[in-house]
Amino acid sequence: MATIGHNNLNAKLVLLGDMGAGKSSLVLRFVKGQFLEFQESTIGAAFFSQTLAANDVTVKFEIWDTAGQERYHSLAPMYYRGAAAAIIVYDITSTDSFGRAKKWVQELQKQGNPNMVMALAGNKADLEDRRKVTAEEARVYAEENGLFFMETSAKTALNVNDIFHEIVARSQVLDTFPHIFDASLSHLRGRWVGDFFLQLFLEVEVDWYQIRSDPDFVLGKAKKLPRAQPAQNPAGMVLVDRPPEGSRATSCCS
């Protein structure tokens, strides 16, 4: 593998937002070009990667799709720490979702990378008849807080690719690529190993968190395990269980 230069870059990107805003659907549309009508909620975080060519730059996005449930909020800094870009997603049919997005923006402004490129995505733009948050309201908020704004639809693919292209374009304008995105081969190796163990740790941590907060979690896990099937001999006949110790064996033809 060749050393990564200024025209071939890696970028850590995080998606934040309320549960049900459509973060996972946006990533799935961007990475695989797919849309699932019923998307399961993310537990902890999910990792994706996708390469995007823009002008003379090729960027490999390392995408962390975070869980929107409040109980996973404490894990979020482990994902957005060191991120070069963030997409804060809200649902245009929910004012609560928009309010939650504002809180994520405030948190990133205080604790995130100061050079981070931030995008505000008003998702589910295909549900115009159920709209609760106007595009103008979101646009004004984004401009006042240093974000760029787009309305998206994972279902119709509206602006899904465009928002990632705009992140690349704005990163170049801000001259953040050489300082944030670029990395030597040795550094990347270390980061990949680090991300692997971080994800492993977080998966264990999430399970342990759920075990403590939800006693039925282990039971739910056990129910998903395949049931044991009776052993069969080569002829397909079910083997008879061995008789208990101490019982006398009988024979019909002694």
SSE blueprint:
Layout lengths: L7 E10 L5 H10 L12 E10 L2 E10 L9 H5 L4 E7 L3 H17 L5 E7 L11 H10 L3 E4 L8 H14 L3 H5 L3 H29 L2 H8 L31
Parallel strand pairs: 1-3, 1-4, 4-5, 5-6
Antiparallel strand pairs: 2-3
Q: How would you portray this structure in words?
A:
With 254 residues, the protein is of the alpha/beta class. It has a domain at 8-182: 3-Layer(aba) Sandwich (Rossmann fold), CATH 3.40.50.300. Helix content is 39%, strand content 19%. Helix 3 (95-111) links the parallel strand 4 (85-91) and strand 5. The chain is globular, with a radius of gyration of 25 Å. It is found in: Endomembrane system. Its main location: membrane.
Give a short overview.
With 254 residues, the chain is of the alpha/beta class.
Properties at a glance:
single chain, 254 residues, alpha/beta, Rossmann fold, 8 helices, 39% helix, disordered N terminus, disordered C terminus, protein transport, Small_GTPase, GTPase activity, Small_GTP-bd
